[in-house]
Amino acid sequence: MIYLWAFIIGGAICIFGQICFDVFKLTPAHTMALLVVIGAALDGVGWYEPLVEFAGAGASVPITSFGNALVHGALEELKEDGWIGIITGIFKVTSAGISAAIIFSFIAALFVKPKG
């Protein structure tokens, strides 16, 4: 059943993104930023973690989880280190994902030649 809920929740997030493209005529950058902000807001009110527990990868794989990670890390470090933790928490939680994106992009650039 977890696979079904992951598919439904992840699909719903993707449908929302597609509606932003088609109906509201948002650019990919605007849509991505909106989804990150929605994930951050949901984590800020405490609703994203229960969604991840319910839907698994359906909620933890889409871009909304990046906003969740930013806010979650900032709030955790705020409790531990005070106000400076807001900044350090963001980097602590998301650094592995950002580093992986940079490394894999570099490796892909070694093997793929752009058309031009």
Automatic annotation (TrEMBL):
PANTHER family in the cross-refs: STAGE V SPORULATION PROTEIN AC-RELATED, STAGE V SPORULATION PROTEIN AEB
Pfam families per the UniProt record, alphabetical: SpoVAC_SpoVAEB
Protein name in the entry: Stage V sporulation protein AE
Transmembrane segments: 6-24, 31-48, 83-112
Protein keywords: Membrane, Transmembrane, Transmembrane helix
